[in-house]
Structures are given as C-alpha cells and as structure tokens.
Design a protein that fits this description.
The complex is a heterodimer of chains A (329) and B (154). By secondary structure, chain A is of the alpha+beta class. Chain A has a domain of 50 residues: Uridine Diphospho-n-acetylenolpyruvylglucosamine Reductase, domain 2 (2-Layer Sandwich), CATH 3.30.43.10. In chain A, 29% of the residues lie in helices and 22% in strands. Chain A is built from 13 helices and twelve strands. Chain A is globular. The relative contact order of chain A is 0.13. With 154 residues, chain B is an alpha+beta fold. Chain B has two domains: 75 residues, Ubiquitin-like (UB roll), CATH 3.10.20; 69 residues, [2Fe-2S]-binding domain (DNA polymerase, domain 1). In chain B, strands 2-1-5-3-4 form a five-stranded mixed β-sheet, with helices on one face. In chain B, 47% of the residues are buried. Classes of the chains: A alpha+beta (329), B alpha+beta (154). Chains A and B meet through α2 and α6 of A and β4 and α3 of B. The structure holds flavin-adenine dinucleotide (FAD), iron/sulfur cluster (SF4) and FE2/S2 (inorganic) cluster (2 copies). Iron/sulfur cluster binds next to α8 of chain A.
Chain lengths: 329, 154
C-alpha cells in the first residue's frame, strides 16, 4: 500500500472558532477537523479516509490552554497531552488525568496529540483501520466477529454488530472525574457529560462520539467535585510503550472514616465507550477500601461480560484492575 | 502554499503542496537527509525533529503546519564543527550500530535532557520510548545519554 503520498485535500487554517464552524458546515461529511494529527494522518496515509477539505484548527487560540474557573478547570480541546501531563494544577487536583495522559503513546506523540483528539480518536479495530468496508465503515459485515476473525482487542460489553472498543487513555479518567464536554456548532454551545459524549454501535455504528459533522469540541470542563480525591489509573497493554490499552482503568474515590463515601470508576478497552462501572460503585460505597470490597467489586464488574473467541483474558484482567483500583486508590 | 521556516537557525521560504509531510519537506526540499523515514506511521521515531522546542515525529506533521516555526534537525546540533555532547556520547559509548535510528534517538534524548538534565536510567528509558532501535538493545543508548547528561551538567 502506498503510504507516503496522501490523497490531495483542500487545507484550511482558520484562526477563529466561527470561521472553523463555517467551513465545517460548508463541507459537512467531506470535511475533517485536524488537531494534532496523530490519528488523522494514519487514515489519510492509508487512504482509508479521503476528506475533500481538512480544517486545521491549530491556529485557533481560544481552543488552547488550561484555565481555572469558579468551580473547577476548563481544558481547551487543543491542549496537548504533554501539557496535561505536566500541568501543576492538574497534577495537584486531578492527578488521575495527568496519569492517564502520561500513559498515552510516546513523548513525541504526546507533544503533538491533543486532549480533544484523544477523546475523539477513532477505534483501533485493525480490520477497520485497514480500510475494509465493515459496518463501521458503512458496509454490511463485521470482519472481526467471525470464526476466523482475530478479536483479541475487542469488546466484552455492548457488542451490536460492531465489537470495537474505545482506545483512549484519557477518556476513562474524564468519566471518573465527571467531566463535561463543551461542544459548539452553528447553533451555539452545549455541555455534555463525558459519559454521554461517547456512544456505542447501538446508537450509531459509524461514530464513536455524539459529534456530528459541523460539531467542534471546544473544551473539557472538570468540576471540582473530585479535586484532590484519591485516584487510581492503570493501563495494561501488550507492550510497555506506544501501545493501546488492552484494558485501562481510572477511579476517583472519597474515603471517610475508612469507608468509601463516594466513587466513580471507568474502564477503557472493554466496550465501545469508556465504560462507567456503576454496579461496582454501588457495591463498594459504604465499605472500606480493602481486599474484601475489592473482591466483591471485581466480580460485580464483569457480570454480564460476553467474551469473544480470543478476548476471554480481558475478564480476569479487568477484574484485577478493578481490585487494585479499590485497594490502592 | 508559501511557507517560511527557520531550519537549524537558517531562515528559508518555500512553496509546498499542503499534503507534503514535514519529513519529506526536510529531506527532499530543504535537502537535509539526516532525518530518517522509518515507519511513516508515528511509531519508530526515526523522523523526530524539534518543532518550536518540542520533539515531534515529522512524518505526522504537514510541512505547511511548520510555517513560521523553528525547526532543529540532527544537522543543527553540532556547533562550529564540534559534536554536541549527546552526539559525543553516542560516539564514545557505542550508542549506534547501523545508525538508522540515531538522528531521531538523539533528538528524543535532546528533549529529555532539556526537560530533565539529570535523568536516571528509568527516566532515560521513558524519554526514548518513542524511538525504536533494532540493533543496540538500547543499553548503549542509555549509557550515551548518561554520558551527555554528565557532560552537560558539569
Ligand atoms: C503510534 C501511536 C500510539 C498511540 N498510542 C495511544 C495510547 O496509548 N493511548 C491513547 O489514548 N492514544 C494513543 N494514540 C492515539 C493518539 O494519542 C491520539 O490519537 C491523539 O491524542 C489524538 O490527538 P490528535 O490531536 O493528534 O488528534 P487528530 O488526529 O488531530 O484528531 C483525531 C480525531 O478527532 C477529531 N478531532 C480532533 N479534535 C477535535 C475537536 N476539537 N473537535 C472535533 N473533532 C476533533 C479529528 O477530526 C479526528 O477524527 C496513539 C497514536 C499513535 C500514532
Ligand atoms: S469490530 Fe467494528 S470496526 Fe471492527 S470490523 Fe467489526 S464492524 Fe468494523
Ligand atoms: S518515520 Fe516517523 S515515526 Fe517512524
Ligand atoms: S543503531 Fe540500528 S536501529 Fe538503532
């Protein structure tokens, strides 16, 4: 496959949000928003996606940077993963997000990759990335979910024709922190809970998030509800570096008198969305963060999991991560 | 599109196609072939350059996105014919065999030492985790970076 020469496109480099939105509206499905490019260029080089117009948003200053607000922080969509990993404010108050960012890929990719791109990135299902015409690409079959399909990386929960998973390391951390995504389009601005931002194939098999053509993720708001809580982040991947998670986990926990008074916990790599483990949260609330609670939590976490041919190992893996999150937050 | 860039301290302007990748621009238009192309998919790190002070994989940036930027490639590290301490470290500690990964490896090490002048071994291994070497087994590269760190912080 010819990799180096990407198909031609019209390049736009707007410097204001309005200008970007106009372009996005004008091109609709034929337009592509470009942030750090760490996901986008793969698609272009493989010619698996050939947008007519590429709208490079890097020149829009309003989308950059981390701001403290009255009730938390607001992170511009273009803030790089390196900036998040090294931000004193995020490390001090929302350490789980700094940790998650630090676990993404490699230093060079974190220098270029943005938090907006990290949560909007497409799934890594290799059949789909290869450019096959599967359901997610608009076709009418799934190549992974066949007797011969290699589905090691695929989902335990929420399969619906497509069995791809959420690849992002920051997404579970944002769900654990109860973040809100600020989305703008030609009609104005709205905030969406991180949990509702990500969607599964049952909602729309061709998209990973609620963003429609014309929608721009402007920023991510993290309320101070969880500032300074106990946190846990862990990622297990095939290789120690620049590899996507087989399973990752992020938790935020508050403990009073040796009992878990409140907790939010989410797993990536097990469903098409970063999966909030509400059952686990209910099971451990009021209990001490010890081994017994961890064991209960672990079996609750994987209840209802449906393993595929080759991904059964994700069940004990997920259970181990849940246990450690409860014991070691 | 017209772009103006400062490559290794030299201000230059060119007319390039929007879809041209920075690495191809550096190698084929500017003529600096020290920056290598390995995987072209952001994996191997051979194409690493400094773009406005950040190490990035130049196979995953458009040349036009570097408009107005300062770029440092491997060719820009030696000064007045004297090897940069990191280059010297690679020389002294046998940090390379075939040399394919070396330009990118040195750029990654450069960024690491800028951010953390006295890294321990684990820091070094993390700092170069975005760069693959198929020859050395990395140990000599770690030694080379330690050599440079000592020399640069003396
Ligand atoms: C070798 C390699 C290893 C990787 N390893 C990991 C890993 O371990 N963990 C992990 O989480 N990720 C990993 N990634 C993915 C990469 O980190 C993310 O894709 C990166 O953060 C994406 O950010 P970006 O700004 O470069 O995105 P881009 O490529 O610019 O954009 C990605 C997608 O999001 C859309 N988009 C971007 N910003 C916006 C916005 N503001 N509004 C609307 N849409 C937007 C784009 O249109 C595009 O579809 C890896 C990537 C590579 C190449
Ligand atoms: S799992 Fe989803 S993305 Fe992968 S081949 Fe099947 S339909 Fe396509
Ligand atoms: S050529 Fe750019 S990372 Fe391999
Ligand atoms: S020296 Fe040959 S790849 Fe590193």
């Amino acid at each position: 496959m010819l990799r180096d020469m990407m198909a031609n496109f019209e390049l736009y480099q707007p410097t204001a949000i309005d200008h970007a939105l106009n372009l996005m509206n004008r091109y609709g499905d034929d337009g592509w928003v470009l942030a750090g490019g760490q996901d986008s260029f793969d698609w272009f080089k493989d010619r698996a996606k050939k947008p007519r117009a590429v709208i490079d948003i890097n020149g829009i200053d309003d989308l950059h940077g981390i701001r403290e607000t009255a009730d938390g922080i607001e992170i511009g969509a273009l803030t790089t993963l390196t900036e998040i990993e090294t931000s004193a404010l995020i490390k001090e108050k929302y350490g789980v997000l700094a940790d998650a960012a630090r676990h993404v890929a490699s230093p060079q990719i974190r220098n270029a990759g943005t938090i907006g791109g990290n949560v909007c990135q497409d799934t890594r299902c290799w059949y789909y990335r290869y450019g096959l015409d599967c359901y997610r690409a608009g076709g009418n079959t799934c190549y992974a979910d066949t007797p011969e399909g290699i589905d090691r990386e695929h989902c335990l929960f929420g399969a619906d024709r497509c069995i791809a998973v959420s690849p992002s390391d920051t997404a579970p951390a944002l769900v654990a922190l109860d973040a809100r995504m600020v989305v703008v389009n030609g009609d104005g601005e709205k905030e969406v809970q991180a949990e509702d931002f990500f969607i599964g194939p049952d909602v729309d098999i061709m998209r990973m998030t609620i963003l429609q053509p014309g929608d721009l993720l402007k920023s991510i708001v993290i309320p101070n509800t969880w500032a300074g809580a106990r946190f846990y982040f862990e990622k297990v991947a095939e290789r120690n570096t620049w590899d996507f998670a087989l399973v990752n986990i992020a938790a935020a926990m508050k403990v009073d008198n040796n009992a878990i008074s409140d907790i939010r916990i989410a797993c990536g790599g097990v469903a098409c969305v970063p999966l909030r483990l509400t059952v686990v949260e209910e099971v451990v609330k009021g209990s001490p963060p010890n081994g017994a609670s961890a064991d209960l939590a672990a079996s609750a976490a994987t209840r209802g999991a449906t393993p595929l041919n080759y991904n059964g190992f994700k069940i004990p893996l997920m259970e181990s991560l849940v246990k450690r999150a409860i014991r070691e937050s | 599109m017209k772009i103006e860039v400062t490559v290794n301290g030299e201000h230059q302007s060119y007319d390039v196609e929007p879809r041209m990748l920075l690495v191809h621009f550096l190698r084929e238009v500017v003529g600096l072939t020290g920056t290598h192309v390995g995987c072209e998919t952001s994996l191997c790190g051979a194409c690493s350059v400094m773009l406005n002070g950040d190490a990035v994989k130049s196979c995953t940036v458009l040349a036009v996105q570097a408009d107005g930027a300062e770029i440092t490639t491997i060719e820009g590290l030696a000064q007045n014919g004297e090897l940069h301490p990191i280059q010297e470290g690679f020389w002294e500690c046998h940090g390379l065999q075939c040399g394919f990964c070396t330009p990118g490896m040195i750029i990654a090490a450069h960024q690491l030492l800028e951010r953390n002048p006295k890294p321990n071994e684990a820091d070094i291994r993390r700092g170069i985790e975005g760069n693959l070497c198929r020859c050395t087994g990395y140990q000599h590269i770690v030694d080379a970076v330690q050599y440079a760190s000592k020399k640069m912080t003396r």
